[in-house]
Amino acid sequence: MKLSTNVVTPAVLSLLASFATGSAALSATRRATTCNGHPELCDRSFGNVTFVGTHDSYAVGTNNLAVNQDYNITQQLNDGVRMLQSQAHLSNGVIHLCHTSCTLYDGGSLQDYLTEVKTWMDANPNDVVSLLIVNSDNVAPTEYDSVFKTVGLDTLAYAPESASLAASAWPTLGSLIDSGKRLVVFLTTKADFNSVPYLIDEFTNIWETAFDVTDTTFDCNVNRTNGDSGTQMYLINHFLDKLVVGLPAPDPDHADTTNAVSGVGSLGQQVQTCAAQYGRNPNFMLVDFYEYGNGSVFQVAAAANGVSYSPATPIAQPKTGSSSSTSGSSGNSSSSGVTTAPANGAVDFKLVPTHFAALFAIAGGVLAGALSVF
Ligand SMILES: *[C@@H]1O[C@H](CO)[C@@H](O)[C@H](O)[C@H]1NC(C)=O
Ligand SMILES: *[C@@H]1O[C@H](CO)[C@@H](O)[C@H](O)[C@H]1NC(C)=O
Ligand SMILES: *[C@@H]1O[C@H](CO)[C@@H](O)[C@H](O)[C@H]1NC(C)=O
Ligand SMILES: *[C@@H]1O[C@H](CO)[C@@H](O)[C@H](O)[C@H]1NC(C)=O
Ligand SMILES: *[C@@H]1O[C@H](CO)[C@@H](O)[C@H](O)[C@H]1NC(C)=O
Predict the structure, then answer these.
(1) What is the pLDDT of residues 300-350, one digit of tens each?
(2) Which atom belonging to ligand 3 lies closest to the Cα atom of 281?
(3) Would you tell me which CATH number, out of the four given (3.60.110.10, 3.40.50.1240, 3.20.20.190, 3.40.50.150), belongs to the domain 36-310?
(4) Strand, coil or helix: what is 151?
(5) What is the pTM of this model?
(6) What residue ranges do the domains of the chain occupy?
(7) Long-range CB contacts (< 8 A, 24+ apart) of 226-231?
(8) Residues 6+ positions from 353 with CB-CB distance below 8 Å
(9) Do the Cβ atoms of 309 and 303 come closer than 8 Å?
(10) Ligand 4 and 309: CB distance under 6 A
């Protein structure tokens, strides 16, 4: 066919032009077609996605007043957790993940923890994962950097163009995955964009609701920020504490209702409250004992993201000896001294000497002002 100038219309020209740029883009980059389990999320800004996070993700165990989770990092990630929160402390000069203090609960070294994260991420190349590290001892970012380098996670970590980004300015999940920078790391204090740009300052990028609450109101008020909460991403602390000898401790006995899709004190209800108050859903939802509710926390996230809830494999079942109705058989007693009483739903703590020691350690921590990082 012979093309004369009068048949090559502007429409044909623009079609040819878009075809050319389209094919160039296709050949230049890898294109993730599924992002964090859903094709719809690939084109969504990281700042416009709701992620389930585990509060004190490393504090794993059963029948221990200092643990917040039943399952390890690998299981948490397999089940759909995409933000891992942790509390870092120095233990003999090494960064460990401890609860309030390393004498009370030592969850091992940051290096071992990050190694588990890396193994999972290597096996799951189409997922974006975030870490939120509470820098309890104000350790320099360069010290974290050397641990990330040892593990080989520094090369997977995303460094933003500037120290803080509005929620709308974050790249899409697809572009994070395509660029191979699909680990997003937030540090509560001492982040320094000039020395280690991938250790992102939390509070200039994220604001948080109150934490360690002991009533089920779960309001959505801004509790901590160091920026413009109107444009930042935000995190809801949706875990309920109970007072044990006047001190806050994780409360697995109410985790089914706390993690639920709906009802008083539920995660679903807090998301609705916050969405009504701010016109947008929370970005991160930190929970304890995430598997209580049989996936309800992931169902809440799917609804917030407008995607279907479709777990690839069944969610792990609760392990903690507890009086909650769906947790199955309740442990009768344990070596750590906590006994549950399923008959009336109340928990009967038999405080053995190790528990008194633990409580005194908590009390010491509180006196030292460590409550703010519990
Ligand atoms: C994590 O826990 C699962 C059981 O939920 C277990 O099979 C696996 O070996 C554990 N992985 C590590 C690295 O400890
Ligand atoms: C943050 O929450 C804590 C716990 O509920 C409360 O004591 C504190 O007053 C709150 N701070 C702000 C600034 O809202
Ligand atoms: C994402 O954007 C949609 C549309 O504006 C909004 O409804 C939703 O709440 C946003 N989600 C987050 C986490 O910002
Ligand atoms: C958990 O939910 C799945 C559906 O996601 C269901 O098939 C399973 O029976 C539930 N398990 C329990 C113990 O409720
Ligand atoms: C609890 O104790 C009773 C009586 O000793 C025993 O029959 C039952 O198997 C125990 N349950 C668990 C979960 O250990």
Answers:
(1) 999 999 999 989 899 999 985 543 333 222 222 222 223 222 222 222 232
(2) 9
(3) 3.20.20.190
(4) helix
(5) 0.81
(6) 36-310
(7) 226/201, 227/164, 227/203, 228/166, 231/166, 231/167, 231/168
(8) none
(9) yes
(10) no
